[in-house]
Design brief:
heterodimer; A: about 300 residues; alpha+beta; Alpha-Beta Plaits; 11 helices; about 70% helix; elongated; B: alpha/beta; six-stranded mixed beta sheet; four-stranded antiparallel beta sheet; 10 helices; 10 strands; about 20% strand
């Protein structure tokens, strides 16, 4: 009976200030979407780290024609110099850090270049001898890049040592920046949501002050009096959270899955299922937000 | 049933107290009028019984419990034992008569079959048999007050507090309301009624507790509403004797019997 009564009160309350309830739904929807967007960016970063860190390499570029680096003063790399570098790679001091390595000749470098820039006219103006030969090294621990760099960069015949991970780090820092922006926007929107939920509950409590007054007098418990108001806010926030989850799922499915995945076939994007994993978090956040906001408001505006 | 021990209530430290060292006891099953001018402390008295406020000093006992010592989650239980009726009825305008009365049972978790059984009974007690489907705005003032009384007593409280229940009603209608309250009192409910209505008090011949500036200035059984007689008032302060005579007069006693 009491449950039916509380449910009836909630339905009545939601109907009575429908406009406010809709605005609560929209504000929580927008704020939680930004929270979710930040979450998705982080998931994407983790995914890409996992994918790329296994594949990226340290590249030791050897001197080619026209190299201007200090180590290349004696002209293009000689076979002796190349052998010395290879011997050093095989020596126990270096080998302990190296998973495996392979040599990429100028011709192979040219093939890769052509693949990478297939759609660009730049391919026509590049010849194999303009591209440097290199050793591609896969490290056991990517953090040990510094050791390789120190060992090889001053060797004769070495133009430069490049850690490809640093290129990725730059991308990740852009993505981290974006998720920070999303968090800041989410924070502002969450403040809006809290204030709006508070105002809505206040209005609702005011418009039902007759009922609550009578409930108090006939000895209804605090729970029965306050629960309909709290649940009103919570229900609105949960609807907002569900909408936000649906939006994130749609972004993962249609934008990442259908559009971006086709443009960047070698990048692993997060799946719609992974985006949905954020949804319990968002719903939980919505419930906590609405629950605490309405409880605080009721303590001030609804005497029990 | 209700006992005040040296109760003082101060709302504003600069002003005089709303109640000043009030000690009084109202027995189970009694019918008591609370009279006195506005600001004399009648509403404060009722608020203290309901524990809307806590006394600044002294203790208020309701049904043997010191209400100031109740933890806040037990206050609802205290209030279930007290029915309240107001001058302005306080019905829910969008609910029918039946729903208004049933509301008081729903919110304390009574089950549906009990409600369906009890509400018509109570409506019959207050003289509104068969009017359960009507809306409050279709009723006269007296009928609305009867609905309010039905709502106050539907959970069978031991105490009924009435704050000027006839304040908005004409004399004839008021008499009808008093009959209902008397009937409820005869069923064993303690009734405390704050009022300004001298006709009502005079016709009922019940206990009269008169408050003035927060103090009890008169407490008599089967008394009249004599505070309306300014010539007699000052000499009476603190001495209950003279008006006892008035009560005893046969003319007054036979005047009205309900």
């Amino acid at each position: 009976m009491r449950a039916a009564f509380v449910l009836g009160e909630i339905a009545g309350g939601l109907r009575r200030n429908l406009a406010m309830v809709v605005s609560v739904i929209l504000v929580t929807f927008v704020s939680l979407t930004f929270v979710g967007a930040a979450g998705m960016l982080q998931l994407q970063i983790n995914q890409m780290k996992g994918y790329w860190y296994d594949r990226v390499q340290v590249a030791i570029f050897l001197c080619g024609q026209g190299s201007t680096a200090a180590g290349c003063a004696s002209g293009p790399v000689t076979p002796d110099q190349q052998k010395a570098i290879q011997a050093l790679l095989d020596s126990p001091a270096v080998a302990q850090y190296v998973n495996d390595y392979h040599y990429e000749s100028q011709n192979e470098a040219y093939q890769h270049f052509k693949e990478q820039f297939a759609n660009s006219p730049i391919v026509d103006s590049v010849t194999p001898d303009q591209l440097p030969a290199s050793f591609r090294i896969n490290l056991k621990d990517p953090e040990k890049y510094q050791i390789i760099s120190e060992t090889f960069s001053s060797r004769p015949g070495v133009e430069t040592v490049i850690d490809q991970r640093q290129l990725l780090e730059r991308l990740f820092s852009v993505m981290n920046g974006a998720s920070l922006v999303a968090i800041v926007i989410a924070g502002v929107m969450i403040v809006c949501a809290i204030l709006l939920i508070g105002t809505t509950i206040r209005l609702s409590a005011f418009s039902r002050r007759r009922e609550t007054g009578i409930m108090r007098l006939v000895g209804a418990s605090k729970l029965v009096i306050q629960l309909p108001f709290v649940l009103e806010g919570v229900i609105a926030a949960v609807i907002g959270a569900v909408l936000a989850s649906a939006t994130l799922w749609a972004v993962a499915k249609f934008f990442l899955g259908d559009v971006l995945a086709k443009q960047y076939p070698d990048t692993a994007f997060i799946s719609p299922a992974q985006a949905l994993m954020l949804s319990p978090l968002l719903i939980g956040l919505g419930v906590v937000l609405a629950g605490s906001a309405s409880m605080l408001t009721l303590r001030r505006y609804l005497k029990v | 049933m209700i006992r005040f021990d040296n109760v003082t209530m101060v709302y504003d430290k600069k002003a005089r107290p709303a109640l000043d060292s009030v000690s009084i006891e109202i027995q189970r099953g009694e019918f008591a009028f609370l009279v006195g001018p506005s600001g004399s402390g009648k509403s404060t008295f009722l608020r203290l019984v309901l524990r809307e406020d806590r006394a600044t000093s002294g203790s208020v006992f309701v049904a043997g419990q010191n209400v100031a010592k109740l933890s806040s989650w037990r206050v609802p239980r205290l209030r279930r034992g007290i029915g309240v009726v107001f001058q302005d009825f306080r019905l829910l305008p969008q609910k029918t008569v039946f729903a208004n009365v049933a509301f008081a049972m729903q919110v304390i978790g009574k089950n549906r079959s009990v409600i369906r059984e009890t509400v018509p009974e109570v409506l019959k007690t207050v003289g509104l048999e068969g009017m359960g489907h009507r809306m409050p705005h279709e009723l006269s003032g007296g009928e609305q007050q009867r609905v309010a009384i039905a709502r106050a007593v539907v959970n069978r409280p031991g105490i009924l507090l009435a704050d000027e229940p006839t304040g908005n009603l004409d004399p004839t209608t008021s008499q009808g309301i008093m009959q209902v309250l008397d009937k409820i009192n005869q069923n064993g409910t303690t009734v405390v009624m704050a009022t300004h209505d001298d006709d009502i008090v005079n016709s009922m011949r019940k206990r009269v507790i008169e408050l003035g500036s927060g103090k009890i200035v008169r407490d008599e059984a089967k008394a009249l509403y004599t505070s309306m007689m300014p010539a007699v008032r000052p000499s009476h302060l603190g001495q209950p004797a003279p008006s006892r005579e008035a009560v005893g007069s046969p003319a007054g006693a036979s005047e009205e019997e309900i």
